[in-house]
Amino acid sequence: MLNFFIQEGAEVAQDLEPVVEAQEKTLSIMDLLMTGGIAGQIIIAVLFVLLFVAVYIYFERLFAIKAANKMDGNFMNQIRDHVAKGNIQAAKVLCAQNNTPVSHLTEKGISRIGSPLEDINTAIENAGRLEVYKLEKNVSVLATIAGAAPMIGFLGTVIGMVLAFHTLATSSGQAEMGTLAEGIYTAMTTTVAGLIVGIIAYMGYNHLVVRTDKVVHQMEATAVDFLDMLNEPA
């Protein structure tokens, strides 16, 4: 009988014990960024700077290319009329009012009217190279960031892995797997950050290249149209 009461009391005590539920450990991005050690935090900071530079260059160049692509559809017709009437000054004023790469090329060609066509063509080509250089200003930096950011992120991961295995080696193999795994996935965050920055910079670079090519093609078409105009019989 005594054993019966003891067993009953034990079962009741067991039922009264609080149920401890397994708490799932949440993964906070801020925790990952702040617990990556000094080396990891420095690399993350560098990647943030590269991201800011890439975004700034992208939008600055995008607005500049959009402004360069704006041109009156009747621009060349007006230039043709002024040149046909011999009103060269009015044609130059019209080019200055537009302030686009196309108008700059046209103004350069107008200023050379009277010279041989070969000289006019050379002057337009030189002006075109200058305008393309202005359009592509700092765009190569995006390409550099697109290639460098993933490598910088991978460098942070390698440093984190070296430190994690160093901890394992100095503890004679007695390091807790949880602590070791935490150090490893924290180190991997630099690679993730580097890939994100690299992808953003790469997409921005390609988009700007496409938009710049459209302006360059428009400049080439205008130069050919202008030279054809000069070749027309009087």
UniProtKB/TrEMBL annotation:
Gene Ontology CC: one annotated term: plasma membrane
Residue ranges crossing the lipid bilayer per the database entry: 38-59, 139-164, 184-205
Keywords: Cell membrane, Membrane, Protein transport, Transmembrane, Transmembrane helix, Transport
Source lineage: Bacteria, Pseudomonadati, Bacteroidota, Flavobacteriia, Flavobacteriales
Name of this chain's protein: Biopolymer transport protein
Domain MotA/TolQ/ExbB proton channel: 99-220
Predominant location category: membrane
Family under the similarity heading: Belongs to the exbB/tolQ family.
Subcellular compartments: Cell membrane; Membrane
A single BP term in Gene Ontology: protein import
Membrane topology annotation: Multi-pass membrane protein
Cross-referenced InterPro entries: ExbB/TolQ_transport, MotA_ExbB_proton_chnl
Domain of life where this protein originates: Bacteria
Pfam families, alphabetized: MotA_ExbB
